């Protein structure tokens, strides 16, 4: 069949696409930025579109024309510059369902989440519930799947955070460490979607996808630490106020475009526990959902997982250090502008040009130091840091080559800072 997967390059969506291709279906994927996905999955017909802008049935009709099944694996955790929960979870889904009914789409598979509730104070759960309601109220042959905490070989968002916390040196920090959680393998989610697409599940079915037994967050983190091959370490519960503080900081970073899984919405979801009912799935399927231990055993960890886990928490530290370094450098240059200009004048640079050069350099330093904190500007800011540093080294070598041998090493110390920028570029990608 012809299957359209929304959010096709996400943690769940990419696994679904791989399974549907293996099943022999013709698959199209939809997302905002599909360039990387096109390179990774050339067998898929990719559609570049922002769901939050497709809010009328007429917007969706060209997209679903000729499609047999739609699988909605798109979603966002919290409102931000790139995400509008009500638009993505509710309004776009309402319009999409109407378009599917008009276009004669046979089936609709909605990937929802444990804990949806239209009355929830958490916009993530309430908007998801409203989207589910639009699907359930349609004339389509629908299936609504509500996974627990999805564990996948890929790491993004919460799954990346689990690995990073598990790899923390010396001990494992955890907020709400005793909250119960039921996991599910992304392969099991893909199996459920495969069956729904094929029509082998009962029609008009809304069902949880969770392992049979709940376990605490502390137990899950310990399991991930063992999976990474690291020595056992004590899980240390963090005070709730620290969680609220981190959530507030993450929410602030969200306004700058960073999608941290530590935002207040995620912490609120964890506070309520992530648990569902495993029995209904067992009643309709001969494929029991595997427990966490089996899920981890099916995706053995190697050195790349340990590198990722250790670098994930280092990434914000790296970016914060670079921002602080360049901001302070620019501020000091402004405060001591005359002294800096005198150094250039002593090397034969005209006084006016020296003053302008110091002022321009200081402003440039502060601009890139601030820009690196804004997600859409981070990459160009890092590249600009490299260009400024190389220019600084070249100019210093021409004007004052003896600085390379200066006792405090002002030029030599620039090299490690340059290397840190390169590391930041290497770990900048979110998925």
Walkthrough of the structure:
With 431 residues, the protein is an alpha/beta fold. The protein contains 17 helices and 13 strands. The protein has helices at residues 11-22, 35-40, 57-64, 85-103, 123-136, 158-166, 186-198, 217-227, 240-254, 264-271, 279-284, 292-297, 303-335, 337-346, 351-371, 375-399, 414-426, and strands at 2-6, 26-31, 45-48, 69-72, 107-111, 141-147, 149-151, 172-175, 180-181, 183-185, 205-209, 215-216, 235-238. A seven-stranded parallel sheet has the order 3-2-1-4-5-6-11, with helices on both faces. The chain is elongated. The two termini are 29 Å apart.
In CATH terms, the superfamily of the largest domain is NAD(P)-binding Rossmann-like Domain
Radius of gyration: 26 Å
What name does the CATH topology of the largest domain carry?
A: Rossmann fold
Q: Unreliable runs, pLDDT <50, ≥5 residues?
A: none
Domain module count: 2
Number of strands: 13
Q: Tell me the overall shape.
A: elongated
Q: What is the CATH architecture annotation of the largest domain?
A: 3-Layer(aba) Sandwich
Topology as a string of helices (H) and strands (E): EHEHEHEHEHEEHEEEHEEHEHHHHHHHHH
Query: Sheet with the most strands?
Result: 7 strands, parallel
Strand order of the largest sheet: 3-2-1-4-5-6-11
Number of helices: 17
Top CATH class of the largest domain: Alpha Beta
Please bin the fraction of helical residues: 40-55%
Report strand %.
5-15%
- Average per-residue pLDDT, rounded, comes to 92
Which class of secondary structure composition applies to the elements? alpha/beta
Transmembrane segments: 316-335, 355-374, 381-399, 411-428
Domain NAD(P)-binding: 7-194
Protein name: SDR family oxidoreductase
Keywords: Membrane, Transmembrane, Transmembrane helix
